[in-house]
Amino acid sequence: MSQSASAFYPVGIPGQPWGEAERAQWRARQRRQRSHAEDVVAAVQELAVRFEVVEYGRLAPEAGGHPLLALHTRHWDPALPVALVTGGVHGYETSGVHGALEFATHHAGDYAGRCNLLVVPCVSPWGYEHIQRWNHDAIDPNRSFREDSPAPEAAALMRLVAPLQGRVRVHIDLHETTDTDESEFRPALAARDGKPFVPGGIPDGFYLVGDTARPQPAFQAAIIAAVEQVTHIALPDGNGRIIGSPVVAHGVIEYPCRELGLCAGLTDAPYVTTTEVYPDSPRATQAQCNAAQVAAMRAALDHALAAG
């Protein structure tokens, strides 16, 4: 989408931040396109024979009333470290949700006796159903992991994880970077905040976002090496950047996760990363995207648990 075509988002007045009327107008444009109950809740219920299923919150009726569900190791051992997997913080990022479920279904057993698993496959059910980055209130959950969070999805997850602080060894947060980031979500963000939209680029391939406070280059490299067996890794642009951030290693950039209110800043785990799959690449299928997420999870857990 060109700058001229995307300069005006069809909600609100350019240069003026949205109020409640504009948020309601934006919400009226959204359409339910898939079922959280059929795709996520049903899969979680099938896994109840192997995991403890925890409903750690529920969205308000106007946001669909969806249960917020987590899977955790049935025979929880307080002596073992905790591995946290989060998907669907941005509900439209499909492989994060389904990759987490595939991992729980086919690979979680490999970590029995090595760690306690806490898998949260779909943090934002309304976003999942509407294939939307924001929640029902036009708030980005992945900028809302902070005290007095305005996003109920983020606040509920923070409450779930709070008792585990100091025990989480590794946290992997599963995301995607899509073409609609540039065509829809970034223009909407600019309009919502009353700012001009500045066009950017979408990298072709998988990459990781590490935390500037906890870089762990060997950990990030191990994940990239594993994913590279499944799908291609994004290359930097002509300025040595991916989505505007300097590349610090092959396929790796860094953000100050806690400062930005990102899910990756949720815990004080020493090993933290955010995956970014590119599902719109002509070189990657949906199955490959899910497999890339699974490969990233396995490599992250293997490295973090071996490192101690």
UniProtKB/TrEMBL annotation:
The keyword Metal-binding applies. The keyword Zinc applies. Its cofactor is Zn(2+). One of its GO terms (biological process) is proteolysis. Residues 32-308 form the Peptidase M14 domain. It holds the Pfam family AstE_AspA_cat. Keywords: Hydrolase, Metal-binding, Zinc. GO terms for molecular function: hydrolase activity, acting on ester bonds; metallocarboxypeptidase activity; zinc ion binding. Belongs to the peptidase M14 family. This is Peptidase.
